């Protein structure tokens, strides 16, 4: 697919038309307050992996509603002092996989916490282990339309709350340094990291790659590729519910979280990305509130974005923060 979105000079000036709810902050304050009424109950169980350079812990903590959420904590072997902490969130449909996977960040000498995404883990990779026990009104297959009838019921209310609790759980381990915590992720994980960057006030940096869940009004009409297409197909059947759906999504739009961004940020976008169109990524980047921000643009790439090239850039960039 050749380029289909705005030219790069227009992308750099683009602003979303997504309308922020007046009670956006109150909604999220209440959501997190309710989540914290449940004990975090973070448990770290050592896992035998056969690895000699990395120690892995099977983590369980209480997320939204007190529901158990899984994760992996990976530490360089022999760690005795608290380490900088990288909290990572996963792309759409993936799960935390197996304990010996995803060793890049622990290989840098940092602690690495990978959150499982509730209800997901069967679309790619080696699977997930976290259920989503909450039911929903009629929805299109996938996750994008679960609970679209009201912000209180929407699926990503649970996921974003899990993400905040994941940071709290990872920070509770004695070998992680809470004062040097960053959030990263690609695609859905990028969108989650943007929300986390707004909801957790003291992260030192975030790095969302080709982030999903941004600028819903444009995304749901610009691309016919899933997952955004799930919303359009839901509305194709449920005629006349567009305003209701847009209202629900406005509480979860990365653009509004970005306006509350409190840490330096490194974004990435790909100009041929039909899954997360570049204008939706730039909508969040341009709204990001912290003055120290940068975006890496990959001219001829689709949703794979920069891949290992972006990883190399993040490795260099994060040295300034952790």
From TrEMBL:
Enzyme Commission identifier(s): 3.1.1.41
Top-level EC class: hydrolase
GO molecular function: cephalosporin-C deacetylase activity
Domain Acetyl xylan esterase as annotated: residue spans: 1-319
Pfam families, per database record: AXE1
Active site: 187, 273, 303
Keyword field contains Hydrolase: yes
GO biological process: polysaccharide metabolic process
Matches recorded under InterPro entries: AB_hydrolase_fold, AXE1_dom, CE7
Residues bound to substrate: 92
Superkingdom: Bacteria
Keyword Hydrolase found: yes
Record key words, sorted: Hydrolase
Gene3D superfamilies: alpha/beta hydrolase (3.40.50.1820)
PANTHER family: CEPHALOSPORIN-C DEACETYLASE
Protein known as: Cephalosporin-C deacetylase
Organism: Streptomyces echinatus
């Amino acid at each position: 697919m050749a380029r289909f979105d705005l030219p790069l000079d227009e992308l750099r000036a683009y602003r979303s038309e997504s309308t922020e709810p007046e009670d956006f902050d109150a909604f999220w304050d209440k959501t997190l307050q309710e989540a914290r009424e449940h004990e975090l109950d973070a448990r770290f169980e050592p896992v035998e992996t056969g690895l000699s350079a990395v120690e892995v812990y099977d983590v369980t903590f209480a997320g939204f509603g007190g529901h158990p959420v899984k994760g992996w904590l990976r530490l360089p072997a022999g760690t005795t002092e608290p380490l900088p902490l990288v909290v990572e969130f996963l792309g759409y449909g993936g799960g935390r996989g197996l304990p010996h996977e995803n060793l890049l960040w622990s290989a840098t000498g940092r602690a690495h916490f990978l959150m499982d995404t509730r209800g997901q883990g069967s679309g790619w990779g080696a699977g997930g282990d976290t259920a989503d026990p909450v039911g929903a009104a009629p929805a299109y297959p996938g996750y994008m339309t679960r609970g679209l009838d009201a912000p209180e019921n929407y699926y990503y209310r649970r996921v974003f709350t899990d993400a905040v609790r994941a940071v709290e759980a990872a920070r509770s381990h004695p070998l992680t340094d809470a004062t040097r915590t960053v959030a990263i992720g690609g695609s859905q994980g990028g969108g989650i990291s943007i929300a986390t960057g707004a909801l957790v006030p003291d992260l030192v940096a975030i790095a969302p790659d080709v982030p999903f869940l941004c600028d819903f009004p444009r995304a749901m009409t610009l691309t016919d590729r899933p997952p955004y297409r799930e919303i359009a197909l839901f509305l194709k059947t449920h005629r006349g519910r567009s305003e209701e759906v847009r209202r629900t999504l406005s509480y979860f739009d990365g653009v509004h979280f970005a306006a509350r961004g409190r840490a330096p940020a490194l974004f990435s976008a790909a100009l041929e990305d039909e899954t997360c169109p570049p204008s939706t990524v730039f909508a969040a980047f341009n709204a990001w509130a912290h003055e120290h921000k940068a975006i890496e643009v990959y001219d001829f790439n689709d949703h794979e974005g920069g891949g290992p090239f972006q990883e190399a850039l993040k490795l260099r960039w994060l040295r300034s923060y952790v």
